[in-house]
Here is the input.
Amino acid sequence: MGKFRIFAEQNTKMNIFKHTILFFSLVLASISVKAEINIVDSVPNSSISLLICTPGSEIYELEGHAALRIIHPSYGDFIINWGLFDFNAPNFVYRFTKGETDYQAGAYPTDLFIKQYRNEGRGIIEIPVKLIPEQIEAVIALATDNLKPENRVYHYNYVYDNCSTRPLAIIQQASGDSLVTCFPDKFSDGQTFRSLMTYFHRNYPWYQFGIDLALGSGIDKKITSAEATFAPAMVADLIRNDSRFSEPVMILHETDGGPENPTPWYFTPLFVCWLLFTVSIIVTVVENRHTNLSRWFDRIYYLLVALAGMVLTFLIFVSIHEATSPNWLYLWLNPLALIVVIGTGINRLTPLVLLYQIVNFASLIALCIIAAIGIQSLNQAFYPLIIIDLLRSANYIYKNKICLLRKN
Here is the structure.
């Protein structure tokens, strides 16, 4: 899957490979456009197949990758890949974060594609597509049209428009019929985008922790098996009952690829967050004897809350990523937490901090209700952090309301 390839493209080897790909893209794009003129004469000897690459060990490879393979009598054996981008483009990281994710379709020889995945130790599954000549003609025409300079750049969407959904959409359009899909036996109905992401990221809990922070309730709706094709690694199982696709064939066996070993339990977000919860209990118990300790704990904790809130502010109100808004975590993680960071220990700001904590406590309860009724699913590691917030908030409200009552 192409979304997180930005992290890998930074090394020299990948940059060389990227420019090689772009070179072949330009050459084959022009060849493909010319080929459209006499494409009918070559159709009987042409073939189409879907290539599914197994997941790799890097985070941008965890859901696999997909491409369309075309064998053409005049122009050879090449693939069309919708997962290309230029990492060196101006302001790439900012634009990627903002949601201005422009990806490109590119074509290059199948041998080069296979060599790349062989070097990475990953496997490739080929799924031949059984179409009549007119449909093969239409697939080739649509695919090569994607390679034209005015069409090759497209706005990438992680779950709706990516390297996996694009070739499948072309096959559907060319054959004039929707995909016949069903979930594999190991997946029950009622899956969501988030639940499938969690499955593929199970050995990378910190990565999923970040995704669950950044992406809101939009990825928690129940999806159809057709929508699950956003994950390339699932495609072969999802389309197994579609008569247009032949039995998958492993053309490149996996060697040392695949996700790494699971993160040790003592390094997982869940353990770390429960450890922090334990610290908060200790701080609360000894607070009367160690006032400075509790103040510094609150300042550090709410500073982290505020920083996370600033990130969410950007993702919700500036980014155009569809999945980042609405995000109900904003009830908890927002820049207003700076009130506690600045106001803790300053007597004249105590009423302001108290007002914040009253509103904060109510907001946290509302977030828990939202999670309980299924509007937005929360990462398990969020719960100890939310309990910490509830604990410190309730403690502050109780102590300072008592003090204010005594003064009055």
In short: Residues 265-407 form one domain. The chain has two domains: 5-182+225-252, 265-407. The beta strands are 47-53, 65-72, 76-84, 102-109, 124-128, 153-155, 249-252. The chain has a mean pLDDT of 86.
